[in-house]
């Protein structure tokens, strides 16, 4: 099986290396050439244009797209379409809105091209060493590329979730939970910081990640952040992001689900831009650890 991979950002770059480790042949392409040159050093087959990419793929073409949500995904599909034929497969592994995925599925189906939406989680370390994948689309098409999902994910870390849009819908809700969890963690550490004891946050995160009810990879990343900067004094408490959280909140309102913890988390992120808090430092630090997301330094 040979895969064309478009998009060598932080997640995409690591995912390609992960696939190579698991014996999936990849031809990698990125709009800007620097990441292409960099990944070529890792002995990955590369292309410097969509046309070159397509020429290097077999008759049955499978394309994995890993670019920013929205217009960039549509632009890549538009550029790739002239080189695709009936039965070829496009996978969107980024954080797309699930209704956009349904639209793309229907558009490509009219052209006899298959489309799968795969929500990808696990941060940069997951992309590199074993991700969590949520797959939506036609089940028979998923079966054709299941080998790729198995290779890219941790054990029991992928699932076919349902028809078109289901993969990105599940990932959207996952991100909504992530926002709420991060907010709770940030506020908890802020209370620790203002309480009556002089505490070692790295030690606390280490204890909480081992055997506690709130043990998680998130707490591992908190430990890593506090190890590097015990009081997070080198950063501001400003939290970025928000798009996937807003999708989840608007969808919750549509289906009359009071996603109140997510609502609070989004409001707090917005407030952090004008009135930074220690909770925001914790959230920003964890986001940097798992995804390389921007941190505003002092």
The pLDDT mean sits at 97
Question: In what range is the share of β-strand residues?
Answer: 5-15%
Helix amount, in percent? 40-55%
Counting DSSP E segments of at least 2 residues, the number of strands comes to 8
Low-confidence stretches: none
User: What is the topology, as strand order, of the major beta sheet?
Assistant: 3-2-1-4-5-6-7-8
Distance between termini? 48 Å
Radius of gyration based on Cα positions: 20 Å
Count up the helices. 13
Order of helices and strands: EHEHEHEHEHEHEHEHHHHHH
**Which structural class matches the secondary elements?**
alpha/beta
Largest sheet: 8 strands, mixed
Globally, the shape reads globular
């Amino acid at each position: 099986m040979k895969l064309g991979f478009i998009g060598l950002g932080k997640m995409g770059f690591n995912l390609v290396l992960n696939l190579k480790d698991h014996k999936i042949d990849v031809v990698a392409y990125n709009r800007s050439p620097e990441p292409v040159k960099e990944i070529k050093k890792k002995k990955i087959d590369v292309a410097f244009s969509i046309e070159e990419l397509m020429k290097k793929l077999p008759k049955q073409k499978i394309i994995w797209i890993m670019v920013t949500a929205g217009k960039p995904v549509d632009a890549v599909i538009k550029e790739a379409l002239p080189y695709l034929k009936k039965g070829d497969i496009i996978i969107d592994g980024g954080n797309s809105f699930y209704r956009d995925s349904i639209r793309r599925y229907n558009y490509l189906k009219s052209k006899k091209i298959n489309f799968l939406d795969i929500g990808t989680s696990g941060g940069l370390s997951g992309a590199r060493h074993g991700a969590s994948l949520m797959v939506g689309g036609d089940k028979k098409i998923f079966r054709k590329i299941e080998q790729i999902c198995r290779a890219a994910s941790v054990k029991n870390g992928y699932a076919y979730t349902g028809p078109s849009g289901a993969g990105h819908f599940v990932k959207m809700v996952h991100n909504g939970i992530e926002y709420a969890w991060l907010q709770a963690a940030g506020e908890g550490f802020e209370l620790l910081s203002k309480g009556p004891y002089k505490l070692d946050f790295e030690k606390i995160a280490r204890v909480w990640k081992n055997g506690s009810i709130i043990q998680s990879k998130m707490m591992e990343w908190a430990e890593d952040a506090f190890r590097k900067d015990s009081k997070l004094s080198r950063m501001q408490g400003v939290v970025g992001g928000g798009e996937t959280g807003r999708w989840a909140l608007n969808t919750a309102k549509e289906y009359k689900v009071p996603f109140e913890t997510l609502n609070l988390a989004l409001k707090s992120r917005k407030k952090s831009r004008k009135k930074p808090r220690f909770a925001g430092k914790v959230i920003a630090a964890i986001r940097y650890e798992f995804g390389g997301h921007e941190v505003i330094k002092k």
